[in-house]
Amino acid sequence: MPSSVPEAATGYWREVHLALLxxxxxxxxxxxESLWAAVLSGDWYPSCPGEPxxxxxxxxxxxxxxxxxxxxxxxLGSVAGRQALIHAVAHIEFNAINLGLDAALRFAGMPDxxxxxxxxxxxxxxxxxxxLNDRLAELDASYxxxxxxxxxxxxxxxxAHDVLIRMALVxxxxxxxxxxxxxxxxxxxxxxxxxxxxxxxxxxxxxxxRHVAIGSHWFRHLCxxxxxxxxxxxxxxxxxxxxxxxxxxxxLPARKRAGFTQPELERLQAMDA
Length: 273
Fold this sequence. Notes:
67% helix, 273 residues, 0% strand, mainly alpha, Ferritin
């Protein structure tokens, strides 16, 4: 890191890097929670020097990562089906921890609040992972017991070169899917009487809305800095990275609260149609 960065700050960002590289899920959560506690206590060092070459992230040897088409579909009427669903969401949350840490490390020259925001997201995701991991244990399962896919981290690699593209596509497309699909999961789990998992997903749904809103805020901030129209830019990125194919259903009220404009929502609906 540059010699102009104070030694204390250098140590702080090194801890963020070590949290990203940590392979054990619960140790990663603990590192993130300690970092966020330091931020909240005022032990905060801005002006992240950036790690533009950093792509590696720590993850355990399991779950096995496979093509999404190989993931088995299961009903929620069985314990195994609920285990698989909770495991899939836990895997998303684990990847989201890494995404928050990577955003906080990778992109130099952003305002201090940018780094604070993404460390706060990483801390939320660590809490979500712990809740889901505990729920798996209650159902006699563990993280790693089922195969998973790496779609979230694949998009992190594709957007590593530009913070604007990262803000547009990771929180506002991939993470926003959680706003769309989680209400349906909750309804199905209510139908089979799994109120404990419902309670966890309700917390996650509420807090993920803030994460998408953070992405919307910084996407618009960057568009303004570059004299770009946000709606036209977002539309162009959807065409470039997703071939204009975005599937519904869409949680329109949640997306609107998270910073989507009416034209953006109409464009998403048109793509689905």
